Amino acid sequence: MSFDKQIEAVRNSFRADLDSFSNEEKIINELQVKYFGRKGLIAGLFQQLKDIPANQKPCYGKLLNELRGKLSKEFEAKVKSTTEDSSTNKKEFIDYTLPGYRFPVGSTHPIQQTLDQMKEIFKAIGFNVGYGPEIDDDWHNFEALNFPPHHPARDMQDTFFVDQSTVLRTHTSNVQIHLMENKPPPLRYLVPGKVYRNEAISFKHYCLFHQVEGLYVDKNVSFADLKGTVDYFLRKMFGESVKSRFRPSYFPFTEPSAEVDIWNERRQQWMEIVGCGMVDPNVFKSVGYDPEIWHGFAFGFGVDRIAMLKYKIDDIRLFYQGDVRFLEQF
Ligand code: DAH
Predict the structure, then answer these.
(1) 31-79 confidence digits (pLDDT tens)
(2) Regarding the domain delimited by 110-327, which CATH topology (the fold level of the hierarchy) does it fall under?
(3) What is the 3-state secondary structure (H, E, C) of 57-76?
(4) In angstroms, rounded to a whole number, what is the distance separating the alpha carbons of residues 55 and 57?
């Protein structure tokens, strides 16, 4: 076949392929390779230039270049036109007046906000912040805090056991023992943390909650210091007009012991938010402090209760469900 005929044949085959063209990625790629690839039909024609008499070479070279340019333009135009009339036949309508998407910005969990605020209030009166283990042994969670084995006060704590002598701590009071075992008196510590209890879950009880423990040990610490400290905190946290009351109570690790309620105006009822008292001499003995020399007070705030009052939340479970609709309000 003459060179001219071969050129004509490529052109005709290309036209035929375009006529039966369908806009699929596979077909487009195949045609691309077939005509314009490195070993494609057009490259094949260029190959043959070497056998063309020298005086005709420039003329055929030009012809082939034009052919390649023309066919590839036609090919692109075909691909473009079929893409437009198949998928976006209707002109896309963009409504520029629609509000844009908001970036998903995280926020600080209300419990964490409450913890942060409590830390600031107590730091201002000289409390250090400390932490301790959430999985602990019977000694630190109970025994050193003057809960003898089989003491009925253990029942109040609804303990989750890891094994016979290891528990998920039922209160942050375990950290009192760790602190005193590791540091000589005097001490002034605040201990925020998670605690666990195997309780029936309801709007005011959850198996996990938060406490802020306080421990103040020095010479000449009195119950008046404890009362002054708790009152100071309540005024800072809830404002000068907060209504509170101290009630006598019982904890194995304090003597005397008290609980403090604050008045919940919205629900018209008292709400208990902290247990406290003077550190029991037996606790000092179990960590090797001399109770004749050292005195102290301790307290344990229920942080979830405080957050519920502060943010007017009626169900403790909301704190633990991770529902963005709830959390993004804080
Ligand atoms: N640990 C107690 C509880 O979880 C709260 C408490 C009471 C902590 C009196 C104290 C305290 O430090 O002195 O119920």
Answers:
(1) 999 999 999 999 999 999 898 888 998 999 999 999 999 999 999 988 8
(2) BirA Bifunctional Protein; domain 2 (3.30.930)
(3) HHHHHHHHHHHHHHHHHHHH
(4) 6
The label of the residue with tokens 């009362």 reads 227
**DSSP 3-state of 141:** helix
Nearest to 121 by CA among 208, 239, 217, 219: 239
Q: What are the pocket residues of ligand 1 if the criterion is a CB atom closer than 6 Å to any ligand atom? A: 171, 173, 213, 251, 254, 275-277, 298-300
d(CA 299, ligand 1 centre) in Å: 6
Sign of CA dihedral 237, 107, 111, 174: negative
Pocket test for ligand 1, best of 134, 141, 142, 171 (most atoms within 8 A of CB): 171
Q: Which residues contact 240 (CB under 8 A, 6 or more apart)?
A: none
Record the tokens describing residue 28, joined without a space. Answer: 């487009």
Secondary structure element (H or E) that encloses residue 327, with its range = helix 324-327
Distance CA 175, CA 265 (A): 34
Report CA dihedral (166, 172, 177, 183) to the nearest 10 degrees. Answer: 130
Q: How far is the CA of 303 from the centre of ligand 1 (A)?
A: 12
Peptide bond into 152 cis (omega under 30): no
Residue 37's region, left for phi above 0, alpha for psi from -120 to 50, else beta, is beta
pTM: 0.71
Q: Which helix (H) or strand (E) holds 236?
A: helix 223-238
Q: What is the pLDDT of residues 216-262, one digit of tens each?
A: 999 999 999 999 999 999 999 999 999 999 999 999 999 999 999 99
